[in-house]
Amino acid sequence: MSADVLDARSAALETTAWGERFHFFQPRNVVFWMFLWLCGTGVVKGWQMFSPLSGYFGRALLIASVVGVISAAVWGWWFRHVDRYERQPVALVITAFVWGATAATFAIAVPANTAVGSLYGKLFGQVWAQDWHAGLSAPFVEETAKGIGIVVLLALAPRLVRTPTDGLLLGAFIGLGFQTSEDLLYSVSGATQGFGAHQTDGLLGSIATRTYSDIISHPLFTALFCAGIIYLIGTPAQPRRIVRGLALVVIPVVVHGVWDSMIAIAGGSGAIVFVIMAGDVIFGLTALWIAFVWAHPREAHFVRDVLAPEVDTGVLTDAEVTAAAGWRQQRQYIKAGTDRADRKRRRHIVRAALDLLADLASGKGHDTDDVLDTRAEITRLRSVGAQAPS
């Protein structure tokens, strides 16, 4: 094994900080205390909003909370699944979620949106404000409130938040926290309509509306916005790309604004609302796909550098390392299997290669027990395929 290949592995692990741990308690970091203050303020303000409803509307509040927890768990599982390479520490992910659910929502967005709405009403009249307030306030206020979260995480974990993919995934969890709190607000608001005479109907209607609207909502907006901030700021793993950064910051604001204003834009026409909604969804998801396409080459480069020594020693092949570096390459590699058993074996080898990547990152490139066990598993999987009857 050449020294150059090992040096490239060490450099990749140093640059990406894959395998690093996150320590939340940082008493000497002023951002840590700012985080606690703003999140604490958010918790207090949220409590002040919901506690008066805990009596008569207690059942609606409980149901909305349970649905919110289930929805957050499902979306959170999916976001962790998308985190293909070395996953972010759970503590950092929770920190991102908490910022979105407390500080961004109740400490910043709710009072700011209220203030902007009041200003619009005084300047342009209540009718205009009712039509356009959401679309011309929330995108700017809420994306900024959530975007501050990635800057906070950069200050709390500068070695862990380095690539646009980190921005996409951590931004998704910040947005998920915001979405969870916002869904709770809207659900309880639906239950309280008509003085609570039809709590269940109002609650279920709000939950249904928020469920389908969550397909293109705050996790998507914030993922794009936070990836844009990473491009704008630049990190040791990602050189500054101003144009990409500005594009990814502006796009979610536009998509969010159109989504919140589509009834006003359509002039009340249901058909036009549907067209605008479909176009906004397609545009938002396309932007997210492009963001991952932009981020993929650097991530794949780091994966190849970390796993290249395993090719030299015969643990992995070039094709397997390439498959581990991208979803499309993985599908092509698995599809090239000779039969169903071979395709299944290839799928397991790619997963084991990603496990080896994580073990190497945790062990700083050294041959730890986990690394040796994963290598042995890859060898076993390959031998099973070789022994299979033709």
Automatic annotation (TrEMBL):
PANTHER family: PROTEASE PRSW. It holds the Pfam family PrsW-protease. It comes from Gordonia hankookensis. It comes from the Bacteria. This is PrsW family intramembrane metalloprotease. The chain crosses the membrane at residues 30-50, 56-78, 90-110, 215-234, 246-266, 272-295. Keywords: Hydrolase, Membrane, Metalloprotease, Protease, Transmembrane, Transmembrane helix. GO terms for molecular function: metallopeptidase activity. The lineage of its organism: Bacteria, Bacillati, Actinomycetota, Actinomycetes, Mycobacteriales.
